[in-house]
């Protein structure tokens, strides 16, 4: 069985050796005796979860000041009141821990990070 690290190295090898010469991923897999379906599933599961984000504002109060005053940070600007931005995070830690949280507001995200800081 192939580990995620094996497939990561294989993908890097493909990008550096075969892709510049126009070789297809399927032929590279066949040449190196790596089942294409296994590689494709790994790639889909690990690469497609990263998405581009745009930040519209920043908190007015710095994290240290917030803990002193007990106030919640307020966004500087907001794109639309009827469609507030919701945050989805997916964290994978090297020890195998996987955290996933959907539908977070900015304040929920701040609270979650504060709780995670306590674990470190």
The tally of beta strands, per DSSP, is 2
Strands ordered across the widest β-sheet: 1-2
Q: How far apart, in Å, are the first and last alpha carbons?
A: 33 Å
Model regions low in confidence, pLDDT < 50 over at least 5 residues: none
Question: Total helix count?
Answer: 5
Task: Tell the overall outline.
Answer: elongated
Determine Rg (CA atoms, Å).
21 Å
Mean pLDDT: 76
Helicity range: 40-55%
Question: What string gives the helices and strands in order?
Answer: HHHHEEH
How would a crystallographer describe the biggest sheet?
2 strands, antiparallel
- Helix vs. strand class: mainly alpha
Percentage of residues in strands: 5-15%
Domain module count: 2
Biased composition (Basic and acidic residues): 61-71
Region (Disordered): 59-81
Protein name: Transposase
In brief:
With 120 residues, the chain is mainly alpha-helical.
Secondary structure layout:
Elements: H1 4-18, H2 25-31, H3 36-47, H4 63-69, E1 87-92, E2 98-104, H5 106-119
Antiparallel strand pairs: 1-2
